[in-house]
Design a protein that fits this description.
The structure is a single chain. By secondary structure, this protein is an alpha+beta fold. Helices cover about 60% and strands about 15% of the residues. It is built from two helices and three strands, in the order βααββ. It has helices at about 10-30, 40-65; strands spanning about 1-5, 75-80, 85-90. α1 (about 10-30) packs antiparallel against α2. The longest helix has 29 residues, at about 40-65. The N and C termini lie close together (about 5 Å). The mean pLDDT is about 95.
């Protein structure tokens, strides 16, 4: 079930969309980089860690700023079209 809990600014939406696209790109790149290419693999792992940390930091910052409702085992999703934030329960 999805419940609308808020909305972010266009700038904030663009920030998380950039991180989301980067994170997905890195996941796809991880599927094609051979583990024996240690230098590239290590760079990928480092970049994945940094991007994942920035991604989670954005959600934490926005949740605190806008005081979004949350629930145990739930997560927030963003609609990249208009910046709406939804609480998704499983």
């Amino acid at each position: 079930m999805k419940t609308l809990v808020g909305k972010v600014t266009s700038e904030e939406k663009n920030e998380i969309q950039t991180l989301f696209e980067r994170k997905n790109g890195l996941i796809e790149l991880a599927k094609i980089i051979p583990p024996d290419n240690e230098a590239m693999y290590e760079k990928l792992v480092k970049d994945m860690g940094k991007t994942s940390t920035e991604f989670q930091k954005w959600w934490n910052t926005m949740a605190a700023k806008y005081q979004w409702k949350g629930i145990e085992n739930g997560n927030w999703e963003i609609d990249f079209n208009d910046g709406s934030i939804f609480l998704v329960s499983k």
